[in-house]
Amino acid sequence: MKILFIAICFLVSPFANAQQFTLSDFLTENDSLDKFVDSVFNTMDEKSIVAQLLMSAVGRLGSPEDSIKSQIKNNRIGGVLLLNGTVDQFKGWTTEYEAMNKEYGNLPFLYSADAEPSLVNRKMLGSTPVPKANEIMSTMELQATAKTISNDLNKVGINYNFAPVVDVSSNKTVGYRGFGVTPKNIIPFSQEFIKITQEQNIIATAKHFPGHGLVSGDTHASLQVIDGELKELHNYPPLIEDGVLSIMVAHIAVRNNHNFNTQGLPATISETIIQNLLRDSLNFNGLIVTDAMNMGGVSKIQDAAIKAIDAGCDIILMPLNTSQTHIDILKKYREEQVFQEKVNKASKRVIRIKICLGLIEPN
Length: 363
Prior knowledge:
- The chain is an alpha/beta fold.
- It has one domain: TIM Barrel.
- Helix content is 41%, strand content 12%.
- It has 13 helices and eleven strands.
- The strands form three sheets. Strands 1, 2, 3, 4, 5 and 11 form a six-stranded parallel beta sheet that branches. Strands 6-8-10 form a three-stranded parallel beta sheet.
- Helix 4 links the parallel strand 1 and strand 2.
């Protein structure tokens, strides 16, 4: 199985008539793409299927490098967030980890970063200077910023940007990270940032769903609450309509809302928010990624990663203990058919995006 799996995943076809896919294919109805996703999925064992849903982090405040290498060796992750480091470190990590993936017969990784205009120069030391998001005042400046960030990400092997922030500017922990200092710019600037990012073969991510800008506190520290109407929800339909490929869900509860009350739980593990609102009501068919699962807004909830998958999330970002989380998910995967179907669907969505990024090519 391993030999066949490597052949499918890593052989670059020399033939001009081989079917190639791009990010623009991901959200389309495409029988050829569906069949190729299934052909890759059908070569995978249960460990690898579950691994696609887990994304660890490396760098300052992330996991030690030895831990990431162990997770690769044991096939427990499908991607890595490059959290804090230098340009050279980022390039070194992506190069080394992909070499290990080939050695062990794993699928290639999604490599992500919080490469928002306001954070990228602090998160990736040595990256090209760009203005902070709340300092960008023109479309031309926004376009130049998005192109600069995407060029830097491509150079180091990052294919998944956790940006843009589409929250309004009121909350001090996220406000400077979005375009909300001029409210009318939030949607058009976000649309343009997403368009340019995805044209450069990088997944863009709208965050923090369903809206972090009007809560008073910080989800890094504790669960925050939207009381009543989801006043920032209107920012998302235009981005979904335009084809944003990923949305990150915040650790924010919703109360006093007849349709979308989360019963005191963070949106990250609420089927009401993930399935009923984001999937069914807003018709979003892209990747749904949790905010970091080590944050105070969710970290004290038992089996939070399993609950996030049950709710409909595709990627669990920075679980508290990645190896144990993989073991726990795999156990439930083997025991419960409904949960298994949810994992399979999420795993196929991750495989599909990897194909559309060109990481897995038809032979």
